[in-house]
Each structure stands twice: as C-alpha cells, then as structure tokens.
Amino acid sequence: MTPNRRTILMGALGSALFPATGARAEGRDHKVSIRNFTFEPETQTVAVGDRILFINEDLAPHTATADDGSWDTGALEQGQSKQLIVADDWTPTYFCAFHPAMTGRLNIG
C-alpha cells in the first residue's frame, strides 16, 4: 500500500502528540507542601522547565514568593495550590509574604 497524504500527516501528528517510548518528557514534577508554617521540603533540587506544585495544607493563607519578587504563587488559602514552571532567571530563595520567617530554597541545576 502506498502511503497517501492523509496517512503521512496522521503519522506526523501522532509522533508529535505521542513521542516514542523512552523519549525524555519536558521537565519533572515536584511538590512543596505548606504545613505547620513551613515549606516541606525546605530545600529542593530542580531544573529549568520543571514544574513545582505548591500546596497549602495549613489553616492560614500563605505564599511562596521569590526573595526579589521575580516569581510568586499569590495567596493560597487552605487546600489551594499553584503550579509554577522553573525559569532560568528564577531567584532560588523564597519566603511567605504573610509569614517572612517561613523560607525555602530551590537548588536550580
């Protein structure tokens, strides 16, 4: 059977949507839980393009805000979460804007 235009286009689309097994996915997923007025884990190693899900499991509202303000989750009430994608210009240290004694660090490598 000779491939026609439709077969070729569908094959290309399938390859784009469903990469071959073993192909590296873009970025990894990480989780930072906010509970008992701490970030858990307090320090985490991530790479540019990774996704970090910040989840507030505390009673009080919290943020995860870069020390220089370059990135921020915004206010998260109990049970709320925010996913951010690590960029190469991110400041690695962060705190809670409501509770500045709460701090965390990303080792971006």
List the helices and strands and how they pair.
Layout: H1 5-17, E1 29-35, E2 38-40, E3 43-46, E4 51-56, E5 65-66, E6 81-85, E7 93-95, E8 103-108
Outline the structure in words.
The protein has one helix at 5-17; strands spanning 29-35, 38-40, 43-46, 51-56, 65-66, 81-85, 93-95, 103-108. It is mainly beta and 109 residues long. A four-stranded mixed sheet has the order 2-1-4-6, with no helix packed on it. A four-stranded mixed sheet has the order 3-8-7-5, with no helix packed on it.
Question: Which sheet architecture does the biggest sheet show?
Answer: 4 strands, mixed
Spatial strand order of the main sheet:
2-1-4-6
How many helical stretches? 1
What general outline do the C-alpha atoms trace? globular
Structural class by helix and strand composition: mainly beta
Radius of gyration: 19 Å
Low-confidence stretches: 12-24
What is the arithmetic mean of pLDDT?
85
The total of beta strands comes to: 8
What fraction of the residues are assigned to beta strands by DSSP?
A: 25-35%
**Roughly what percent helix?**
10-25%
Distance between the termini: 49 Å
String of helices and strands: HEEEEEEEE
Question: Summed up, what is this model?
Answer:
With 109 residues, this protein is mainly β. 12% of the residues lie in helices and 33% in strands. The strands form two sheets. Strands 2-1-4-6 form a four-stranded mixed beta sheet, with no helix packed on it.
